[in-house]
Structures are given as C-alpha cells and as structure tokens.
Design goal:
Pfam family, one: Epimerase
Number of strands: 12
Number of domains: 2
Domain NAD-dependent epimerase/dehydratase: 7-238
Number of helices: 10
Order of helices and strands: EHEHEHHEHEEHEEHEEHEEHH
GO molecular function, one term: NADP+ binding
Binding site for NADP(+): 11-17, 141, 164-167, 180
CATH superfamily of the largest domain: NAD(P)-binding Rossmann-like Domain
Distance between the termini: 42 Å
Strand content: 15-25%
Bound molecules: NADP nicotinamide-adenine-dinucleotide phosphate
Enzyme class: oxidoreductase
Helix content: 40-55%
C-alpha cells in the first residue's frame, strides 16, 4: 500500500472505521475516499456500483456493518442478517468488479462456536453450533469470510478477513439498549455516580470471561495485515488475555470512582461462557497489542465522559 494509493474506508464514522482513518493519516497516507450511510447506502447495489465505478479505490477497509450487543442482536435478528449480507456482498463483489488491489473484511470473534475450546484458534470456525442470540449476525459474517476466500480462489482476488475480539475506544456506542458490555458498564457506572444511585444492575452472573482490545490497537493490526498478509485464514486479533465480567465491572467501578454496590441480574443471558482468542498467528506475523486494559479504559473514560460532563451532560 503506497502513501498515495486511494483508500476507501467503508464505515469511517464508526468506532473501527474512524480508528483506521486516524491511524492511516498518522502513518502518512493521504488519499482517502469516504461516504457515510446518508450519502451512500451500502445495502443498495445500484448506489454501491456507481460509487465504485466513479471512485475506483485501490484498497478497501470494510468496516461498515450493523453491529450491537446481545439485546440488539437478539431483537433485530432479521435486520442483522439482511443488512450485513447486503453490505458485504455489495462491497466485496464491486471490489472484485472494479479491480481493487486488496480488501480487508472485518468479521468478529463472536462468530466462533459457542462452546469452542479455549483459546480459540482460527481453524475452530464452523466446527460446532453458534451462540443462538447472535446467530444471524454470525451467519452473515461467516458468509463474508467465505466470499473473500472464494473470490480469492475463483478470481485471484487479494481479499483478507480478520477476527477482532471485543473492542472499546473512541466513537463506541454508549446507548444502553444497543451497546456492548464494556461501554454499557462505563455508561451505567458513570450515570450512577453522577445521579448518586446506591446500586448498579449488571446483566448475568458476572462469570463469563471476555477479552478486550483497544480499537487503536485493532487499527494498527489491520493496517499491518493489509501491508504484509495475504491468505484465506481469517486472522484473530486480540490481546490473548481475558478477564471475567465481574472483574471488568469492578475495574470500571474503580476507574469511574462509583461508591455504590453492584447487583447481578441473573435472569439476563450470560452469552458464551468464555471467549479468548489464540493470537499466536498474528504474533508470528509480527504484531502484538500495546495498550493495557487499565490504561485504555481510563483514557476512554476521561476523554469521553468527563468531556461530556464539561459540555453539560
Ligand atoms: N465493536 C466491536 O467490539 C467489534 C468487535 C469485533 C468486530 N467488529 C467488527 O468491526 C466492524 C465495525 O464495527 P464498529 O464497532 O466500528 O461499528 P459501528 O461503530 O457501529 O460502525 C459501523 C459503521 O457502519 C456504517 N453502516 C452501517 N450500515 C450502513 C449502510 N447501510 N450503509 C453505509 N454504512 C453503513 C455506519 O455508518 P453511519 O455512521 O454513517 O451510519 C457506521 O459508520 C464490524 O464489521 C464489526 O463486526 C466490531
């Protein structure tokens, strides 16, 4: 990827897309093409066709998707399947038609089987049943990985895909109905602190274990793979370190400075019991994470919530 190559970041206003943009700009890349969903609806094949034929990007980061936590995935099941299939079919197919040099597709660690052996290696994909609450999203993402793989095999494309673990960082979604666990906990503890609430309810038992990666680390890993990796294995991107939701809740409670109690709502689903990625492949490809979880969460909290307070949140 040369500094002047034309780079299309699909989903550049989202958490992942905006991190890729920040990181590419910082590294010296200058030629970007970007459209938000109000300018280009990626589920619409005609619009995507015109866009690719006009802009002819050299490289594509496909970070546009319908994304959410357990509740959103389980409620909007049809939309998660349909919109994700449409977005990725259109962008991947038009990238082939318009001779894109290389495309990187973002899949997700939550599409591995629910009861995978741990840590999860890349070759565990499609070896057992999926987590039912996010099956539609997972089916769409698996189709995206397979589309990249089979366009490589049939047409000689250079399309790669990655499996990021749970992410956090700037431009995350803090809407409690649709967010992932880490931003949801930041929102809940912060709101409880400023409203002087005596308790904070957290979903599930607190026992499941999860791995978290700062999105700036993901952006650097993705750019590294775009520059150095070609192949059909969807590469895990994570820290290789996990913690229980209980440990996470206590860490966030501490960082926020909330003094009340945590109440566990055990009637809510826990989801997959453990989800830790085996990161030996990406380590062997020359990348490791750099942002420690304590520091990462502190940075996110102080930048997002304390600035919100200053703006009269
Ligand atoms: N967040 C995580 O923890 C996580 C973990 C693993 C993998 N990933 C993967 O990383 C990718 C990006 O996730 P994210 O967290 O950055 O999501 P996000 O913050 O919700 O951003 C998604 C982006 O997709 C765009 N988009 C959605 N529907 C669109 C449409 N019909 N047409 C055009 N653009 C559309 C949105 O554009 P507008 O803003 O313009 O609407 C938004 O910029 C996804 O593929 C996700 O599966 C995320």
């Amino acid at each position: 990827m040369n500094f002047s190559d034309k780079i299309y970041i699909a989903g550049h206003k989202g958490m992942v897309g905006s991190a890729i943009y920040r990181s590419l700009k910082q590294k010296g890349y200058t030629n970007f093409v970007m459209r938000d969903s109000s300018e280009l609806d990626l589920t619409n094949q005609e619009q995507v066709t015109s866009f690719f034929k006009e802009e002819k990007p050299d490289y594509v980061f496909l970070a546009a998707a319908k994304v959410g936590g357990i509740e959103a995935n389980n409620t909007f099941r049809g939309q998660f399947l349909y919109e994700n299939l449409m977005i990725q079919n259109n962008v991947i197919h038009l990238s082939y038609v318009c001779n894109v040099k290389k495309l990187l597709f973002f899949a997700s660690s939550c599409i591995y089987p629910k009861f995978s052996e741990q840590p999860i290696r890349e070759d565990y994909l499609l070896t057992d049943k999926l987590e039912p609450t996010n099956e539609p999203y997972a089916i769409a993402k698996i189709a995206g990985i397979k589309l990249c793989e089979n366009y490589n095999r049939q047409y000689g494309c250079n399309f790669i895909s990655v499996m990021p673990t749970n992410l956090y960082g700037p431009n995350d979604n803090y809407d409690l109905k649709h967010s992932h666990v880490l931003p949801a906990l930041l929102r809940k503890f912060h709101d409880a602190k400023i409203n002087d609430l005596r308790t904070v309810e957290v979903w599930g038992t607190g026992k499941p274990k999860r791995e978290f990666l700062h999105v700036d680390d993901l952006a650097n890993a993705s750019i590294h793979l775009m520059q150095t990796y070609s192949g059909n294995v969807s590469v895990n991107i994570g820290t290789g370190i996990d913690m229980s939701i209980k440990e996470l809740a206590e860490l966030i409670k501490d960082i926020v400075g909330y003094k009340g109690a945590i109440v566990w709502n055990k009637s809510k689903p826990d989801g997959t019991p453990r989800k830790l990625l085996d990161v030996s492949l990406i380590h062997s490809l020359g990348w490791q994470h750099t942002i420690d979880i304590n520091e990462g969460i502190k940075k996110v909290y102080f930048n997002k919530f304390l600035n919100e307070d200053k703006k009269g949140f």
